[in-house]
Amino acid sequence: MITGRDLVVDLFAGPGGWSVPLHRFGIRDVGLEWDEWACKTRAAAGLLTIRTDVAMYPARIFAGRTRGFIASPPCQAWSMAGKRLGLVDQPLVHQSVADLAVGRDTREKLLAACRDERSLLAAEPMRYLHALDSVGEPEWVAMEEVPDVLPLWKQYAAILRSWGFSVWTGILNAADYGVPQTRKRAILLASRVRTAEPPPPTHARVAEPESLFGPGRARWVSMAEALGWGATDRPVPTVCAGGGPGGGPEPFPSGARQTLANSRDRGTWTAQPAAEDIVLKPQTRGAGWTARHGSRGDSPAYGPAPTCTGKATHWTWALRSNNQSNATIRGVDEPAGTLFFGHRANECTWVASPAHAGVQETAPPAPIRITAAEAGTLQTFPTDYPWQGTKGQQFSQIGNAVPPRLAAHLLAPHLDRILTADDFTLAA
């Protein structure tokens, strides 16, 4: 049971992007969430949740008990991935925020004029903040949304400053905080007890050594590192020109559901991979193979050895962010682009491309759909996070969540914690 003013309220809590670091910090929060499967994921993860419509829940119920306030309103109406009708509705949302800040509820009238019924949800945090401010709460605020919502955050900031808060708003890149994804988000941070400012970045596109002006920054975390492809038990798959290792069919035929992580046909990896190392290298069977496996049916893939010549193609894997012609494509030695899911056109797939320039002698392996587990890892959720629902429902939760590692850096100052580039506990 939470007593005193120690409660952290998390609106639109989703599957737990903010809750994961809070629990690692020993802080218990209560998440308000409507989506059935996000609630089931939270329950499986042991997170306190109220399944409710945030727009209908009484805000004053939290007054007198709340230390921290978090909000990540749904972004579909504002996101680059959607119809972006929220941009058309933005004046109505601004009006609703201004009205709620003085205790005037005009939501019903404004909602009737909105092009997208979800747009006005971005004004809901102000209803809660107004109710909490009446009792001098909360101590701190953290909010996150897609970059287009920054003007709205600036409106929130002006109101919060008039209530005695120090406030910072701006755009942060999750990759600068150890997330293997160049996900940019509009952030609002506010505090009644300290100067609000963005957390110092721990990572950079190119590693920076420590200097007289401050600590260094590690290189951005690549997808390969995040997915464990630097470990001996999860190397990159290996494909031979003209067939799979052992002379069989390509390990990733068209339409295959296999993933890079669970493929039986694997190669090797180095701890700090360079671009030229992230390739699908051909294999041959010689005397060493025969000595280890024999020449008869006890061989893992009985049959003649494949023909692998100097003309065999080397392929490197990359992640394609969707099926559109202008999709972001990043090699596995880089962070992913922004992951978003919602409909089939947004599916992310692993694709192979030549590792070296020149004439290629073989066709690349077919694309492989990214799994929910891989997507969750690239969002920095724990690798064993208990996602619930169908694949589509899981992807929807993952794509809409704040990356826990970014959330940890945003929350740490408010909770008197310090995170560094070497703090990888969130990925455990």
Main attributes of the structure:
14% strand, 11 helices, alpha/beta, Rossmann fold, 2 domains, 428 residues
Task: List the strand order in the largest sheet.
Answer: 3-2-1-4-5-7-6
What's the total number of strands? 13
Outline, from the CA principal axes?
globular
What is the ordering of alpha helices and beta strands?
EHEHEEHHHEHEEEEHHEEEEHHH
Number of helices: 11
CATH class of the largest domain: Alpha Beta
Unreliable residue runs: 231-312
Report on this structure.
The chain is α/β, with parallel strands linked by helices and 428 residues long. It folds into two domains: 7-218 and 389-427, Vaccinia Virus protein VP39 (Rossmann fold); 222-334 and 340-378, no CATH class. 23% of the residues lie in helices and 14% in strands. It has eleven helices and 13 strands. The protein has a seven-stranded mixed β-sheet with strand order 3-2-1-4-5-7-6, sandwiched between helices. A four-stranded antiparallel β-sheet has the order 11-10-12-13, with no helix packed on it. Strand 10 and strand 11 form a beta hairpin. The longest helix has 17 residues, at 85-101. The chain starts with 6 loop residues before the first strand and ends in a 17-residue tail after the last helix.
Question: Nutshell version of this structure?
Answer:
With 428 residues, the chain is an alpha/beta fold. The protein is built from eleven helices and 13 strands.
